[in-house]
Write a structure and sequence with these properties.
This protein is α+β, with helices and mostly antiparallel strands. Helices cover 33% and strands 21% of the residues.
């Protein structure tokens, strides 16, 4: 589609973003596009692009198998892996197996269907091209930097990581790691396998004794060498068979001739290694400064390398190299292709080690392109990578003969203009408002104008000088001036011979000449007619104004456009009819090109400006804003235009006909120019970082795509999604509209030309400027490695971009000294008359008006008048600091201070001279300066100034109000007494702030300093962990807060006990007074936990326990009494604080919640042990009633929490051999203590309940044993067991009162469930009242009418059962028995297989079942025994 082109620069910091196939086709990843370049000929040529990725292309690889070499694969930061056909440029398949950006991809040289990729999270994915299947592995949780497939074994893959690790994995074994290669200390940049499938001995120093001993037999083992390059400046050769390093190569530092040593060049290293096919002993690597070196792995000595490109100067890259790939062509040539940060692609002949050709690439938008009117075929490019390229397009030896100019630019080049007469003189404008001139054939930096624009330079043009530059003698006049138009709407005229002088704004000349009083519309473009007699200026409001030289008299105003003017071009005047010489083409943001015939206006200038509202020709077809245009120098009235619609259009202007449309770019176009030597060739550049040369006659289309759909173009633009960012550094032009909004309105002030694209869609910051090579810029998206490089740049370098001369204190009078020579000489005569004449000349007042500058050379009153005029000028310009200094110089110190106070321009210098005006003025100035500093958030400095006028409390209040408590406290403690109340307030406020932010320890320090020890302990305890509670308890104890200390110690001990740290819990309690009872509680808890753990009832081994925690001899009750007496001094005879009564009273006051379900077993043990402790103390006091109640509560905790087995085991511990004698004693005294008697009966019943189940289980063991054992022992068992042996146990369980109570409770529960179901059904019916009624449930339909219940009937039954429950004694409900119905069923079941249940007891059980079991859930089981 195009003849020649410059592609976008290859991506940086990617291990494999380029590759070449055996037919000589090179694929290079640049931004999110892969460029295909034919390298097989003597010169390269871009043949096409692969467009589709949505993010940076991170990897690219060709399939190197016969018949399939046209297929390739690419990976991207968008997480996809795409397969392409390089012949058809079409996508074959896309895989999205990765969830994060893909870092590397490689097509296996062994298996033609296998592709391996790795992402930044460490996931490795195998893609099968023939089936589309994928398999994912996760060998290491590290960031992958590179990977490569073995050329000898299809399943072997080497993976390099960011931290220096290299892993060899086997993909046939689900990514199993074969070897981990450790040796590098930094990022692995590249990996390369040896082309030979053996490990021959290399001449090296083995790095381990094993390798040294077995070096001679290294080749006997099956394996292959692997080379690695790392950021640690070393390359290593690894044995894949042994998994060890066999050679280390240190990278040489090659100092360039005539250049200084850059200390940062080693930090910016990227070390790529490439092992060429057929060269097993030669390895190519990159070096520090872009050099390429060939290593001979068999050579000994220090220099084992050979530098490439030594035959002539300038062959090597000037910056670090990122990728290399090689190919052996059919003609026998072996080529190496390299890509570099210097934005060049180089081809090397590996036989001669010389560079064959160099292809320059572009690292930013192509903002401007223009051919030299003097040097034929000399094309200049202005690019967004801060460089200017000058390309000799007519050379035959090197088709890409380009030179780069970067010195002094330091910003995006947005405008270019060749001098119309001088060969090699090129002017440029930049994004930051800079204007300069390069002499392209001279090796020296550019001349930079001292007058900067405030915003982006849009247009540069050479034209005849106009006043004031045209003033002066004929010999001193420049033949041409340089005019620049920028985003702020100003056109400046620069004198090319005196760029250090001030540039003039032509608006003043236009206003003076045309007697215009109003402010002119901001200018956006200008174009000089080739004969230099007329200039056309485009404005922001869409108006085009035409002026005649030399005074810029306005000839006409063209008012056809209604949007911002982006480009203007005059028809050329050579070899064309005179009637075409005055054609002016204009393009704006409303997509239509207008051509105006101004011949009548120019040849016969009117007395007053003419307004033109109708164009000569109208060119319609583009669908978005026009950004550039150019007239053909070979044809009459033929114009080419470029637009935001992404196309270039050639027009026959006179016929208003489109001739040819070029659609080869991806994204919108920015610039265009016609070839000066070939009538059929046009050059275009745009957003896609490329420059295209194309022929008009070879284009398929004749007009732009219709409508805003632009079907074909939108397909390409999807590959370049615009990332919208907030860009506060917008130009007056407002930035460019996104390409998605084709043809939409543009906001006022927007310039849709070169400067408008300098918005967020391009992020090409300047690269490291300390390098002697040209500073290059990254693409929109680059790897994080480069961000680290950029952060090491010197901050001062960016500040020098806009360095201007300091502003003059006397600008008005200074400007008067830059007038023409005649006026300056007249000033000398006038000044002599003033000083020596009797009276000054008429109308001459030195220091005022036109003679303001003479005030400096006259008397003091004249100087004062001059100062007054200068002050007025400074005030008008907003330079109040200059006014202050003028008043200071004139002695008006108070006036200077007052003005600086009003305008907020006070400074340390003014404050230092303020005491000269008196204390009052100084004090007022300090207070005003303090307010100014507070607005600037310089609170410490403001407080220090308040101290200078002895306002200490105000300074403290200022610091406190801005939460600078630390500084305020330091100030108060240094200046005020220790008992100052404000100090306590500061500590308190600071503590509140720290506590709110979660800094509890610091807040506690503040409370301690303020004397609030209680608050300090409470704050520390807020974190509620063991260390905090221990510290808070200690703090409270030391501070005398005994009650708080005990409370906090108890909380800490409970946490330690919950963690089974019994020693720590006892230690924390022993440090406090009055906590003996709680220590006894923890002792019982520890003993009980150890006992239950020994019996495997509660498998919770203690973390830290005491030696006495083991059970030893005797039961748990006896063990508790022994430990208490031995280790705690508590016995039956203890008195006072150690007495059982006092200790029991303290424990009874402790919190004891009611038993509930779903409580962890550890907490249940603590609660139960509390009741056991109270029971033990009651035992020491001989109080059987409280003893039984506490024992019942201890067992109830386990039972209610759902730990049935632990409850049974506890009962066995408390009542060995089921001896419940203590309960019997209490039952005898039932009349005196009815509650204790009820508790004793309940406890006795549960003990018998557990015994009943033990008997059942033991009986089941006998019955369910082997048949032979049962047959042999059955009769004997029946004979040995006494009949009615369970009667004493069962009689306590078969209580009719408890059976009645339990039946009533069950009935209440069932009725409550029915009521809840009825309410739920009613609510659902109301919710769906508007819907169709749901069909009745089958159960309701089958229910008989007499069984259907109502809310009233259920409520009546509920009242009856509740009344029955209310009539029962409270003791039955507080101290319940086991389920009587359940016990009846167990007894009747035992009676079937055992004679231990008497007939009378069986009959009693059946009676209770028939009376109370019909309504329970066990009614079906009861029928077996009742029928």
């Amino acid at each position: 589609m195009h003849e020649r082109s410059l592609p976008a620069s290859p991506n940086w910091y990617c291990s494999r973003s380029s590759d070449v196939n055996d037919s000589g086709l090179l694929g290079v990843g640049a931004k999110n596009v892969i460029f295909l370049i034919d390298v097989s000929a003597s010169s390269c040529r871009v043949t096409g692009e692969l467009v589709g990725h949505k993010d940076l292309v991170s990897g690219f690889s060709f399939c190197q198998h016969a018949g399939q070499s046209h297929v390739c694969v690419s990976s991207s930061g968008d997480g996809t892996v795409r397969f392409w056909d390089s012949d058809s440029k079409l996508l074959i398949r896309e895989h999205a197996a990765h969830q994060t950006p893909v870092a590397a991809v490689h097509w296996s040289p062994v298996d033609k269907n296998l592709v391996v990729s790795g992402d930044e999270k460490g996931v490795v994915v195998c893609h099968w091209h023939n089936t589309g299947d994928t398999a994912s592995f996760f060998p290491e949780p590290r960031t992958i930097f590179c990977l490569t497939c073995s050329p000898h074994t299809w399943s072997s893959v080497a993976v390099g990581y960011k931290d220096g690790m290299i892993v060899l994995i086997d993909v046939s074994r689900k990514g199993e790691v074969m070897h981990r290669l450790r040796g590098h200390e930094d990022e692995i940049h590249s990996l390369a396998w040896s082309p030979v499938a053996s490990e021959e001995v290399l001449q090296s120093r083995p790095e381990d004794p094993e390798a040294a001993a077995g070096g001679a037999s290294a080749g006997d083992e099956k394996g292959c060498y692997l080379a690695s390059g790392s950021k640690d400046q070393t390359m290593r050769i690894w044995s894949s068979a042994k998994g060890k390093s066999v050679m280390t190569l240190k990278l040489p530092y090659l100092k360039k001739r005539g250049s200084a040593v850059d200390p940062g060049v080693k930090e910016r290293l990227w070390l790529h290694v490439h092992w060429p096919t057929g060269r097993p002993t030669q390895l190519v690597s990159s070096c520090f400064g872009g050099e390429l070196v060939m290593w001979d792995l068999t050579r000994t000595g220090k220099q084992r390398w050979t530098l490439l490109g030594t035959s002539s100067e300038g062959q090597n890259h000037s910056r670090i190299v990122f990728n290399m790939s090689s190919v052996r062509l059919q003609d026998g040539r072996e080529l190496l292709i390299s890509t570099s940060m210097d934005r060049e692609i180089k081809c090397w002949d590996l036989a001669s080690l010389d560079c064959c050709w160099t292809l320059p690439t572009l690292g930013g938008f192509v903002y401007a392109l223009t051919f030299s009117p003097v040097g034929a075929g000399c094309l200049a490019l202005g690019v967004g990578d801060n460089m200017i390229r000058v390309w000799n397009t007519l050379t035959t030896q090197n088709q890409y003969d380009t030179r780069s100019f970067w010195q002094g630019v330091k910003s995006k080049v947005t405008a270019l203009a060749w001098h119309p007469k001088k060969e090699g003189t090129l002017s440029f404008g930049t994004d930051d408002g800079k204007v300069g001139i390069f002499e392209v054939f001279a090796n020296r930096p550019p001349q930079i104008s001292s007058s900067y624009h405030k915003k982006t330079v849009y247009t540069l043009a050479w034209g005849p000088p106009v006043p004031p530059v045209s003033f002066g003698a004929a010999g001193g006049k420049p033949s041409h001036s340089l005019y620049s138009c920028a985003g702020e709407g100003v056109i400046l005229q620069h004198d090319p011979s005196k760029l250090s002088g001030e540039a003039s704004d032509i608006d003043k000349l236009i206003q003076d000449t045309n007697n215009i009083q109003h402010k002119l519309s901001p200018h956006t473009d200008l174009s000089w007619k080739p004969d230099g007699k007329v200039v056309a200026i485009g404005n922001e409001d869409g108006c085009v104004e035409v002026y005649a030289v030399p005074s810029l008299q306005q000839l006409c105003s063209i008012q056809q456009h209604h949007k911002i003017i982006n480009t203007l071009r005059w028809h050329h005047d050579h070899d064309s009819p005179p009637e075409l010489h005055c054609l002016l083409a204009s393009g704006s943001s409303n997509a239509t090109v207008y051509v105006h015939d101004l011949r009548a206006v120019i040849e016969n200038p009117p007395e007053s400006p003419v307004v033109l509202t109708e164009p000569y020709r109208r060119l319609c077809g583009h669908t978005s804003k026009i950004t550039g245009m150019a007239w053909s120098p070979h044809h009459e009235a033929r114009l080419v235009t470029v637009s935001y619609d992404g196309t270039a259009q050639v027009w026959d202007v006179l016929q208003e006909e489109p001739l040819s449309n070029y659609r080869g770019h991806v994204g919108y176009l920015l610039c265009v120019d016609w070839s000066p030597v070939d009538p059929d060739v046009i050059w275009t550049g745009g957003k896609d970082f490329t420059l295209h040369e194309w022929r008009v006659s070879k284009q398929e289309f004749t007009r732009p795509p219709k409508g805003k759909k632009m079907v074909d173009l939108r397909e390409k633009m999807k590959a370049n999604p615009k990332k919208k960012k907030n860009n506060n550094n917008k130009k007056a032009a407002g930035g460019a509209a996104p390409p998605q909004t084709n043809g939409e309105a543009v906001t006022g002030g927007e310039k849709a030309g070169p400067g408008a694209e300098l918005s967020a869609e391009e992020d090409d910051e300047v690269g490291p400027a300390s390098s002697p090579a040209p500073p290059s810029a990254p693409f929109e998206v680059q790897r994080k490695s480069f961000a680290a490089v950029k952060s090491k740049e010197k901050p001062g370098e960016l500040n020098t971009l806009k360095k201007k001369k300091p502003r003059s204190m006397l600008p008005v009078s200074t400007a008067m000294d830059h007038r023409p020579k005649e006026e300056l000489l007249q000033d000398c005569v006038t000044l002599a008359s003033v000083r020596h004449g009797a009276a000054p000349p008429a109308g001459c007042v030195p220091g005022r008006g036109e003679h303001i500058h003479l005030g400096l050379f006259s008397d003091r009153p004249a100087l004062c008048r001059m100062f007054q005029a200068e002050e007025e000028a400074h005030v008008e310009a907003g330079h109040f600091d200059s006014v202050v200094y003028l008043r200071l110089w004139s002695g008006d110190l108070e006036g200077a201070l007052q003005l600086a106070t009003e305008k907020g321009e006070l400074s340390d210098h003014l404050l230092s001279v303020a005491p000269m005006a008196g204390f009052a003025a100084w004090s007022r100035t300090v207070e005003a300066y303090v307010k100014q500093l507070c607005l600037q958030e310089q609170y410490l400095k403001a407080a220090s100034h308040l101290l200078s006028i002895n306002k200490l409390y105000e300074a403290v209040d200022l610091l406190r109000s801005h939460k600078l408590y630390r500084e305020a406290i330091a100030l108060v403690k240094a200046r005020l007494p220790a008992d100052e109340p404000v100090l306590k307030e500061l500590y308190t406020c600071w503590a509140a702030t720290l506590e709110k932010d979660g800094h509890f320890s610091a807040a506690a320090k503040c409370h301690l300093a303020a004397g609030a020890s209680f608050d300090a302990a409470k704050v520390i305890a807020r974190k509620n962990d063991v260390p905090s509670l221990r510290a808070a308890a200690g703090l409270a104890r030391v501070s005398g807060e005994a009650a708080l200390a005990r409370s906090l110690a108890l909380r800490c001990a409970k946490d330690l006990a919950a963690a089974r740290d019994w020693i720590g819990a006892q230690d924390i309690l022993s440090g406090q007074d009055g906590l003996l009872a709680h220590r006894l509680h923890l002792c019982v808890a520890e003993l009980m936990g150890a006992t239950l753990a020994d019996r495997q009832a509660a498998p919770q081994p203690a973390a830290r326990s005491h030696p006495w925690a083991s059970l030893g001899s005797g039961g748990i009750q006896g063990r508790v009494r022994d430990v208490w007496e031995t280790h705690f001094g508590v016995s039956q005879h203890s008195a006072g604080p150690h007495g059982a009564g006092a200790l029991l009273q303290e424990l009874e006051s402790a919190e004891s919640p009611a038993p509930t379900a779903n409580v962890p077993l550890g907490q249940v043990q603590l609660h139960a042990s509390l009741h056991l402790t109270c029971a033990a103390l009651s035992s020491l006091l001989g109080a059987d009633g409280p003893l039984v109640k506490e024992l019942w509560r201890a067992a109830a905790w386990f039972r209610e929490a759902g730990h049935f087995g632990v409850s049974a085991e506890l009962c066995r511990l408390l009542f060995p051999d089921h001896d419940v004698g203590v309960c019997s004693e209490v039952l005898r005294l039932a009349g005196e203590e009815p509650e204790a008697a009820a508790a004793a009966a309940s406890l006795q019943a549960f003990v018998h309940y557990h015994r009943l189940y033990e008997h059942w289980w033991s009986d089941s063991t006998h019955v369910d044993g082997p048949e032979g054992v049962a047959a042999a022992n059955g009769d004997a068992a029946e004979e040995t067991r006494p009949r009615g042996g369970l009667d004493p146990v069962a009689s306590a369980l078969l209580s009719e009162r408890h059976a009645a109570c339990q039946a009533a409770q069950r009935s209440v529960g069932e009725i409550q469930e029915r009521l809840a179901a009825m309410v739920l059904k009613h609510s659902r019916a109301q919710l769906h009242s508007g819907e169709a009624p749901a069909p009745q449930e089958p159960a309701d339909a089958e229910r008989r009418p007499e069984e259907q219940e109502t809310l009233l009937s259920l409520s009546t039954k509920m009242a009856e059962h509740q009344k029955r429950l209310g009539d029962l004694p409270d003791a039955l409900k507080v101290y319940p028995h086991p389920d009587v119905v359940e016990c009846c069923l167990v007894l009747l079941h035992l009676s079937k297989s055992s004679a231990s249940v008497s007939e009378s007891l069986q009959q009693k059980a059946k009676d209770l079942l028939s009376k109370y079991g019909a309504e329970s859930s066990a009614c079906r089981a009861a029928r077996r025994f009742l029928t």
